[in-house]
Amino acid sequence: MNMSNARQYPVELQRQVIDEVKNHNRLLSDVAKQYGVSAKTVYQWVRSNDLRQMRSKSAIVSEIAHLQQKITQLSQQLHTMAS
């Protein structure tokens, strides 16, 4: 199926399906049947969500490291000024 024929599902439906799989430990195939979506589509939604969360966590960890470096730098400057 090419992308122009790909079916668009409401974001809220995608969130519900992902929640069922991730937070309620339901089988992907069971959730797919319940919501009338292919198992492949559910898998893609869950995987995409996992990747998004990993990128978000990575960005947060990077920002924390940057801020820790800045705190160290400012602390050193403050110590130098106080001496």
Keywords for this entry:
mainly alpha; disordered N terminus; 3 helices; 83 residues; 0% strand
Task: Give the helices and strands, then pairings.
Blueprint (H helix, E strand, L loop, with lengths): L10 H13 L4 H8 L3 H44 L1
Helix pairs in contact: 1-2, 1-3, 2-3
Structural overview:
Helix 1 packs across helix 3. The protein is built from 3 helices and no strands. The protein is mainly alpha-helical and 83 residues long. The radius of gyration is 22 Å and the shape is rod-shaped.
Mean pLDDT: 91
Helix/strand/pairing category: mainly alpha
Poorly predicted tracts of residues: 1-5
Beta content: under 5%
- The percentage helix is over 70%
Total beta-strand segments:
0
- Report the end-to-end length measured between terminal Cα atoms: 70 Å
Succession of helices and strands: HHH
Please outline the major beta sheet.
none
Give Rg in angstroms: 22 Å
Tell me the number of helical segments per DSSP (H or I, 4 or more residues long): 3
The best one-word shape is: rod-shaped
Task: Give me a quick take on this structure.
The chain is mainly α. It has helices spanning 11-23, 28-35, 39-82. The longest helix is centred in the last third of the chain and has 44 residues, at 39-82.
